[in-house]
Amino acid sequence: MEQVAEVLRQKRAQLEAQIAEMTRPQEVGTISFGKRVGEGTSQAVDRLAAVPAHDELTAMLAAIERAQQKLEDGTYGRCDVCGQEIGAGRLEARPWATRCLQHA
Ligand SMILES: [Zn+2]
Asked: Is residue 103 part of a domain?
């Protein structure tokens, strides 16, 4: 399980960095004088397009936190809903899975 813990830790750090980058306050408005007009607009569009991805990242981060908690309390690998084994194949593909396929 040590390897899983390490995978989760790395994935979590990566997600947190991505989310931080995404939610970083934009400097548009404070230093807009020196910028070309189109720049702020395209940045705004980029941010809008990034919203679903942001939700996805936050959801995955929550799942990782839950999986880390399950590692600690010894329920890792078992479904949060029914308590059945999640399955090695599924855990390999998604080490942060906290539910079986049926309850995903
Ligand atoms: Zn289940």
From this structure: no
- How many domains are there within the chain? 1
pTM of the predicted structure, to 2 decimals: 0.72
- State the distance from the centre of ligand 1 to the C-alpha of 92, rounded, in angstroms: 17
**Is residue 96, in this structure, part of any structural domain at all?**
no
CA of 13 to the centre of ligand 1 (A): 28
Task: Identify the CA nearest to 74 among candidates 87, 64, 83, 82.
Answer: 83
Range of the domain at 67: 2-76
Give tens-digit pLDDT for 45-99: 565 555 678 889 999 999 999 999 999 999 999 999 999 999 999 999 999 999 9
